[in-house]
Amino acid sequence: MHIIIYVLDALRADHLSCYGYERQTSAHIDALAHEGVIFENCFTSTTWTRPVAASILTGTYPGVHHTRSRHDMFSANLSRLPETLKAGGFKTAGFSTMGNIASEIGFDRGFDRYYDLFRDPAILDRRRKLDAAEEGLMHAPDQAIALPRAEDVNDYLFPWLEENRTANTFSFIWSIETHVPYKAPDEFRRFSNTASLRPEEGEREDVRSAGPHDRERLMALYDDEIYYNDYCIGQIVNQLKSLGIYDHTLFIVVADHGDAFYEHGTYAHGHAPYEELIHVPLVMKLPGSQYAERRVAGLVELIDIFPTIMAVAGLPPGMAGSTFVQGHNLLPLVDDAHDQVREYVFSDTQSLEIGNRYLSVRGQRWKYIELQQPGRDRRTLIKTMRHIVQRGIIFDILHSPRHYLRHYLRGSNQYLFDLEADPGEKRNLAAERPDLVTQIRQRLEEWQQRNDEVAQQVGSLPYSYEESESLRRHLEKLGYM
Question: Which terminus of the chain has fewer CB atoms gathered within 10 Å of its CB, N or C?
Fold first, then answer.
């Protein structure tokens, strides 16, 4: 059996054709969905990459694995999906295109091979280079990193699949294509106006300084990227078929979070958990195309991927120390044995200690968001200034002050939305329905308490985590060892 998780960074569910988008952006993902299952209401546990990746690989929330901020390593004493699959006889490989899920911060643990493609010399030679500090990669050992293309992933994935075509394999793929900058190859610019395209369009600063009038232009560039990445996924499907292993493959296409296009006055991600950021696609093509053309409306979360893979692979729950997994096996939901596996989904976002923390509880109808601001004392001010200096973003702030102020200044700290009457989350009902705020906030507190209890159990285990050699060297360089 072959298992593939393909993560498209910052991909919105509502920009895929199979989720009802009017543009035909995703023919190959649509084909996978036709032969598998579409989860219409899948949600992420946070709105930026690193903690989401840790949640997928451990099946736990950020409050348990504690990989929350840009300063955190992924080193929780939790069993990970590749380790569990290895214990079940699978060969494992990871393909990373970005530094937030790099080997030096611990994401290579459990993988037989782990490819940090963003620092591969061949890719650095032929692809655009970025500055690691400007990208907010606090632990990056290299100053320059590459921006790999989705086709570069295939160049490394295909030999791995061919080499192990007769084995059981797990391939974990993270594509950065749909993340800023929105720069699809010229031949895939299907939706943007290429005749008037300026060099700065789709770049990070273009997005940061954009206003409401830029929305359609940036969305077209974004859709170009989806169209291109979808094409590369189609190439993977063709390769699986040519190797004769497609029918024996569990192929999961998913996103870590979405991207905002000024629906609530801002772009990109990493901030308030509105629907455009936490509602993500989840398409699952099972071996033998079991459950083809099935659509599931129940609420599911990315932490459910871990136990569902174990069930499809025939591995028993609790195997290889996976007893702390908080997700649910989704097969009973797919098989119509259950209408739902949970009543609410939750999220917790704070990429920096000096930044705002966003918590959310979402049911089928009601959604509550809580903003917790850090104390604005002398200590926080010093940390903020140090962060600005270390990242060298003072000129970015001066160039795009609106972008940064939007992330730190909010008029309220409690939001309640009726998603049936107000799917765009435009009308805050918190002041009008304090009874519902109290009721749903109680769910949030119970969820946080459960996370704390599980985290304490994990912390009380005999410490069995062993750093990889690359992580050990990196920790020594940073002064942690």
Answer: C
